[in-house]
Write a structure and sequence with these properties.
Distance between the termini: 37 Å
Strand order of the largest sheet: 9-1-8-2-7-10-11
Number of strands: 11
Radius of gyration: 16 Å
Number of domains: 1
CATH topology: putative 2-phosphosulfolactate phosphatase
Strand content: 15-25%
Length: about 240
């Protein structure tokens, strides 16, 4: 079997190019560690139904009209959107068993939707890192694209660390230069992920806003055996958790 090729999309300007890229033989893993994908993984691991990531508040409200029982979640500038049921803290997503969620965030949902043409799209976080690696080995794709959602238009350290963790856990894969950079960053923090998240721009901002609990939660490594997989714009649980924590 040929080695898998791993590339990393480090920042939003690169994500802008994904809808035009040839992704038919590529599995994309999207990371928005602080906090969109950590919230999604938490929700799915606790039994939430499907999640619909959308690009705009307007699109979310239209979907809500057609799905009145669904919850609206997400953020703008890190804060809960006025009139929505949920913000973007993973701590809010632990008691939503059976609920459908419509969500829109500044970067995370944009990154997910940019990958729609991929062979498969996985929702990644540190929370489910081992499960992501297992799923990638199962799929054994020709190419893996690790998509770092970023912050506004800039790179986000915590997303790069997560991409690097995947690279480090798939020895033998052929790495692009961007993947080598991500893995090198991860190696610096692999024994103390929380420090990496605290030192990141987003981590510092959340701590300053009194949301250190979100940072601590998102830094937990592989506490869930739950992988969200997006198909036709809908995220469902692709792997049943062994334990709902």
């Amino acid at each position: 079997m040929n080695a898998m090729h791993i590339d990393v999309t480090l920042s939003p300007p690169e994500i802008d190019l994904l809808p035009q890229a040839s992704l038919g033989r590529t599995v994309c893993v999207v990371f928005d560690i602080l906090r969109a994908t950590s919230s999604m993984v938490t929700a799915l691991a606790h039994g939430a139904g499907h999640i619909l990531p959308v690009l705009s508040i307007e699109e979310a409200l239209i979907l809500k009209e057609h799905n009145p029982d669904a919850l609206l979640g997400g953020e703008r500038f890190g804060n809960k959107i006025e009139g929505f049921d949920l913000g973007n803290s993973p701590l809010e997503y632990r008691e939503l068993a059976g609920r459908r969620i419509i969500t829109t965030t500044t970067n995370g949902t944009v990154a997910l939707r940019a990958c729609e043409k991929a062979e498969s799209v996985l929702v990644g976080a540190f929370l489910n890192m081992d499960a992501i690696v297992v799923r990638l080995r199962e799929l054994s794709p020709e190419k893996i694209m690790l998509v770092c959602a970023g912050t506004f238009r800039e790179l986000a350290l915590e997303d790069v660390l997560a991409a690097g963790a995947v690279c480090a856990n798939l020895p033998g894969a052929a790495l692009s230069d961007a993947a080598v950079i991500a893995m090198s960053a991860f190696k610096r923090y692999e024994n103390d992920l929380l420090s990496g998240l605290r030192e990141s721009r987003n981590g510092r901002a959340l701590i300053s806003a009194g949301r250190e609990g979100d940072v601590e939660w998102s830094a937990q490594n592989s506490i869930y055996d739950a992988v969200g997989e997006m198909k036709s714009g809908i995220i469902t649980l692709g792997r049943v958790p062994d334990t709902v924590l």
